[in-house]
């Protein structure tokens, strides 16, 4: 069937809107990420780079065809922090190629955006975040060394900081966006009360844990476990996102458990905390969801088996039809 010019025009307009929406979201996430920065070996980096998470989520939702929106978003972010140079175009390529490769690898292993299986969580961690983001960080830090803006001896510390920041964007932001895209089920009143209670406790405990001079960051893990057990991935990832933002604010302000530390120590402590917290929230929620889905499948199969057995039993107990030939009269 050949499409009409009107339908082709609508598809083109829809595609243009999607590309522009991706570019705007990427740019907005980039502006948010640039609000808090750390310095390692003279190079400035962001502990969490949200645009990588936005880019991977958009590619998984809309498809690979919206990659020009990512490139446009990268270009807009670069124009706000520096003048555009020929080498800047290589940065655009690297920051576009990394999420595209992440999407391709996730598709290759049968990734499902509902993150209802443990294998999906592992794929997002090890393929979408840790492996794919090697591309953008490697190209970015390599350009700094090539342009004499960074000493070659400082390559690996800066590369590690850049890589972890990009990976954290995928680990924290991508699951939240995928969940918002698929959000359909509403909570019952009792669950709403529990959700509000959990949120209030998080608002009280997380700032205390991230800004207290006593190192009590471990207090956030019971909240993550509570959120994962009761609200699965949605609760645990929102809790992890809030905690990560608060920890980043504390680290960049050099307060609480990040006070009196060197810049490298701050970077290591913050990224280790954010990474383990995001992994705990994502993988624990995936395990819980997978087990609950398996239980529902088993319960559904048992119910169907019971119905079949009841039907067969009813058929066996049915009285036999009357046969006049078997009840002959005596002559």
UniProtKB/TrEMBL annotation:
Residues that span the membrane, as ranges: 12-34, 54-81, 121-147, 159-180, 192-209, 238-259, 271-289
Pfam families found in the cross-reference section: MASE1
Principal location: membrane
Keyword terms of this UniProt record: Cell membrane, Membrane, Transmembrane, Transmembrane helix
Highest taxon, organism lineage: Bacteria
Listed name of the protein: MASE1 domain-containing protein
UniProt entry tagged with the keyword Nucleotide-binding: no
Residue ranges occupied by any MASE1 domain in the UniProt entry: 20-292
């Amino acid at each position: 069937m050949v499409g009409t010019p009107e339908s082709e025009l609508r598809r083109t307009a829809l595609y243009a809107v999607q590309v522009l929406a991706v570019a705007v979201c990427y740019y907005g996430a980039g502006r948010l990420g640039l609000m808090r920065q750390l310095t390692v070996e003279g190079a400035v980096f962001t502990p969490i780079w949200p645009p990588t998470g936005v880019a991977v989520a958009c590619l998984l939702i809309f498809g690979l065809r919206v990659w020009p929106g990512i490139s446009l978003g990268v270009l807009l972010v670069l124009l706000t922090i520096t003048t555009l140079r020929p080498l800047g175009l290589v940065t655009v390529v690297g920051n576009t190629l990394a999420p595209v490769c992440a999407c391709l690898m996730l598709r290759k292993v049968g990734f499902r955006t509902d993150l209802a299986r443990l294998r999906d969580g592992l794929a997002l961690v090890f393929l979408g975040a840790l492996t794919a983001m090697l591309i953008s960080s490697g190209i970015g830090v390599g350009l700094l060394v090539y342009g004499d803006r960074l000493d070659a001896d400082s390559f690996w510390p800066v590369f590690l900081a850049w890589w972890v920041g990009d990976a954290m964007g995928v680990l924290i932001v991508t699951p939240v966006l995928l969940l918002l895209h698929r959000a359909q089920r509403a909570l019952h009143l009792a669950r709403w009360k529990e959700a509000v209670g959990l949120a209030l406790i998080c608002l009280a405990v997380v700032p205390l844990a991230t800004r207290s001079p006593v190192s009590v960051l471990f207090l956030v893990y019971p909240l993550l476990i509570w959120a994962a057990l009761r609200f699965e991935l949605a609760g645990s990832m929102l809790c992890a996102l809030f905690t990560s933002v608060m920890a980043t604010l504390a680290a960049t302000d050099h307060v609480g458990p990040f006070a009196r530390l060197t810049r490298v120590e701050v970077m290591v402590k913050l990224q280790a905390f954010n990474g383990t917290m995001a992994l705990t929230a994502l993988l624990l929620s995936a395990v819980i969801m997978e087990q609950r889905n398996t239980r529902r499948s088993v319960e559904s199969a048992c119910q169907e088996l019971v119905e079949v057995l009841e039907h067969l039993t009813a058929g066996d107990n049915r009285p036999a039809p009357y046969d006049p030939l078997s009840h002959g009269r005596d002559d």
